[in-house]
Specification:
Number of helices: 28
Mean pLDDT: 78
Helix content: 25-40%
Strand content: 15-25%
Strand order of the largest sheet: 9-13-14-15-10-11-12
Number of strands: 28
Shape: extended
Length: 820
Amino acid sequence: MTPEVLQKKEKQSNLVSDSQLTAPDIQRASKTEANSLTPENTHKHSVLLVDDEIHVLKALKRVFASEDYNILTAENAANALDILTQNSVTLIISDQRMPQMSGTELLRIIRERYPKIIRIMLTGNSDTDTVMQAVNNGAVYKFITKPWNDNDLLLTIRLALKQYDLIQENAALKKISRDKEKEIAKLKQFAGAKKSTLSSALASKGQLAPGQIEMLEKYCAKNNCALVKGIIELGMIDESELFRFVYLECKTEHIVLEKSTLDIKLAKLFPREICEAGCFVPVNLKSNNLLIAMADPLDLMQIDYLSFKTQYNIQTRLAQISEIDNAIKYIYYDFENDGVDYLDDLEFGDGYDKIDVLLDDEVVETPEQLMKNSESPSAIKMANAIVSDAIKIGASDIHIEPKPKYSLVRYRVDGLLQTKIKYPSVLHSPTVSRLKILAKIDITERRIPQDGRISVKTCDKIIDIRMSTMPTIYGEKIVCRLLDKTASIWTLDKIGISGELFKRLENIINIPQGLIIATGPTGSGKTTSLYSMMNERSSPTLNMVTIEDPVEYLMDDAAQVHIHEKIGLTFAATLRSALRQDPDIILVGEIRDYETAMAAFQASMTGHLVFTTLHTNSTIATISRLLHIGIEPFLVASAVNGIFAQRLARRICPYCKDLQAYDRELITKLGVTDRQMPDELFYGKGCEHCNQTGFIGRIGIFEIFQMTEEFRQFLTTNFKETELSHMAHELGMETLLDDAINKVKEGVTTLEEILRILGPTAEYEINCPKCNYKLDPDFLNCPQCGLAQKILCKSCKSQLLAEWKLCPHCGIDNPFASKK
């Protein structure tokens, strides 16, 4: 970015920020550098492929087909050099063995002419010694041997281009930094120059001799400071006496600078160095009037400059130099002296401004030197603000991520991460230490991941926070899972189960004993649904027990156990103990291993109703997963009552709900071909209620598998998962996609949301070799032309190949064997 562009943008802005390099500066600089290398502004990077074999060039182009690169090709070195004279290229991949000029010679020439281009060699194993010499000489950045791995090649190129971007961004930052430093230097000289009439007023009143005036002006010019500061630093006049003199001379109203009177947002107006050199500080901004506290209101030229710089009407007040210095430290975040109170402006209403940490275990003692930082007001305020804000907006997770110059706080709301807070990196370590102390984690250990727990009480809620730390190159990353134990348990209709699904699920949960399994990825609402089912069965005549890690909801009608594996309180051990407590219904938080699975199955077969969860993608896949764990097929067939798979989709906002035409290609990606979709579907336009997202809350998408006698008999055979899936569909089981499409038609969610949570459906169709009709791979004959797609033995029904004369399974002749 050129100084002219900076000056132009500076004049267009009412608030001028010179104090630091901001993220927009970096982005604009990087974008400018990138655009200078973009051919026709359509691609960020151009990649030149050089090889004398056409099929190699085509293979390389196919590798980069999915990338947003401008791909250029050359069949020899001379052609490549011609292309470089006409195009801006970021990266070149060249073959080593080429006629007339080798790849090493080509890349050496390119290094001399175009040093910024990243040079990668493609070579055979026999040429690695030659290429390594080129690498050591700097002609080649990296080499890749033939035959290459597509994924490794893509990763190498991405990393190389990322490094290129960082180099360009760094160069842009250095240029901006140099420009800023030059500008600040000029402004400091201006601020410290002789502009005030104070020296002449002091001389006329006999306060300073001519020799002192000359010495004062030289000192101020050398140190770039205002006259008032120079007088104090040289000890010519006492500060209080000088303050009275300036007050009588300028007849300007006096102001006492306190934190309550200062607006920290005004720090964006001027660099800190300018305020220190000019001995002034911005106080507040009302309408178009900017109030400035100055130690020398007689400096009219500086007042005119500030008005020109900000385009505001400047109103001045007299303040003491010591007060101005303290105010500058406050609004420019003097972190080292713990003068950060800028979080006072964060407002968390509804009782969320204060949180109490419930240390229900023994307090962990930590070294005093680390405790000092973690107990600083800024660290405490930051930690409280992060947690309070997350609770207020209903976040399920908190991500605290360190970056090179700042730290980022992101909240997961309705399944998606949202960036909410950026704070200086100097506060990251104290904030992390504060959270680690609350979670009873060793703050002296920063090299390995750690886990902890915090119980937080806010207003009328008790929030259980599961905290995990992970060391990264910029510091420790913190992720917190928030569980509202006092949240009300939803009814089945509120979580999205209704109609035929509700009837099927009601039949499953009303069976007095057996196993009910919820499956799906982490965060899909499995435990919430299980609690809803337990609440449906809740009765004073039943004894219910929950075994979880952690306990996610408080249920008055159940005895709840929190797993603590470090002391031996595991799922399997607790479940065996719970069976001696005469339970009717048991909730096991998760089946993680064979031991827990067997304990759950044994409990379900001894007269108990057991609810549990498992991580699989579908209901049928859950059966395969249980078999892989080691559970016998007859146990699965006899113990399992039902399985339901679940996902969470965002609900369309009811306040901005509207109809619109949709992209028909979404239907194709989802694999929806046999349904009549309406011409228009509901969507959320975005409003203040949904924070312009178009969605409020989430609803469950379900697939419910009910165990029947047919399934029990089938599971005891040598079955295939696809056969079981076809059988379930024939018996009326709706898939996740079926339920999702129904909710789209009802206007509850959108096709885009369904595609986000379920992903595109893989196509398993094949084409008939005779009529080219699209077929299911399981079809025996083409329904269009009747051509046999599979040959089955008439005796044992095994699949045969056309060239087989006999069935290898039963030995019967193959009547369809080819004559050849």
